[in-house]
Write a structure and sequence with these properties.
The chain has about 210 residues and is of the alpha/beta class. It is built from six helices and nine strands. It has helices spanning about 5-20, 25-40, 55-60, 75-80, 120-135, 170-180; strands at about 45-50, 65-70, 90, 105-110, 135-145, 150-155, 160-170, 185-195, 200-205. A hairpin with a 4-residue loop joins β6 and β7. α1 (about 5-20) runs parallel beside α4 (about 75-80). The structure holds S-adenosylmethionine.
Length: about 210
């Protein structure tokens, strides 16, 4: 498979709107940030996948973590740059993940909140493996996906400017297997409810 370009274009169209809607930190994400920072010992260099409007990177930096902001959507990358942050256009499925600031040094962690939902099931293991390869032994991973079966396509916007998002749902056992196969040791998979009827699986893992 490959990256769904309709999904990426859809985020491009609404980057500023999405960033405003997602600006408030959800309680469950705050809990995961606390755990992630504690596991990192309050320092380290982290690759963020799907930074979106940059909410989580700001919080991680406040806690002493150095974050490389990236997104596959140029709408988000441009927005972050306009706001004074460095950000890179990066597709975790195909792009070189090495850190431009220190190309020979692997990351201490990966933060991928609510973004791997847009990776096709058949590409998921490849992405998880590439993330593992980009990090040092013992590095930490946060990744969150929607809990459920199958795939979903949602269409928003007007007929003249439709937006189409493709998402892949995961069940815990398959998610754990994909992570283990890709070189991650899963310490916890927590269940959270985003909005009503919007269940998430949130992974805490370390690199084997
Ligand atoms: C629901 S938003 C989450 C944004 C941010 N992490 C947050 O929690 O607010 C999904 C993010 O995934 C990114 N995305 C879309 N397709 C992707 C793909 N194939 N691989 C990685 N990220 C993708 C989007 O650009 C967007 O930043």
């Amino acid at each position: 498979m490959s990256t769904d370009r309709d999904t990426v274009r859809s985020y491009d169209l609404v980057a500023a709107e999405y960033a405003a809607e997602a600006a408030a930190m959800p309680e469950w994400v705050a809990t995961e940030i606390d755990a992630f920072v504690t596991e990192l010992g309050g320092s380290g260099r982290v690759l963020e996948i799907g930074s979106g409007g940059g909410r989580d990177a700001l919080e991680l930096e406040k806690r002493g973590i150095s974050v490389r902001r990236t997104d596959v959507s140029k709408g988000f990358v441009e927005l972050l740059r306009e706001r004074g942050f460095e950000a890179d256009l990066l597709d975790p499925l195909t792009d070189d993940l090495a850190d431009p600031e220190r190309p020979d040094k692997p990351y201490d962690g990966i933060w991928a909140c609510a973004c791997l939902i847009h990776i096709a099931r058949e590409d998921f293991g490849t992405v998880l493996g590439r993330l593992a390869d980009a990090t040092r032994t013992g590095s930490r991973l946060h990744a969150s996906v929607r809990d459920g079966d199958g795939e979903d396509v949602t269409i928003h916007g007007s007929a003249a400017a439709p937006r189409r998002y493709v998402e892949t749902y995961w069940r815990e056992s398959a998610l754990r297997s994909a992570l283990t196969d890709a070189g991650w040791i899963v310490s916890d998979v927590r269940r959270y409810i985003g909005r009503p009827d919007d269940p998430w699986l949130s992974v805490r893992a370390s690199r084997a």
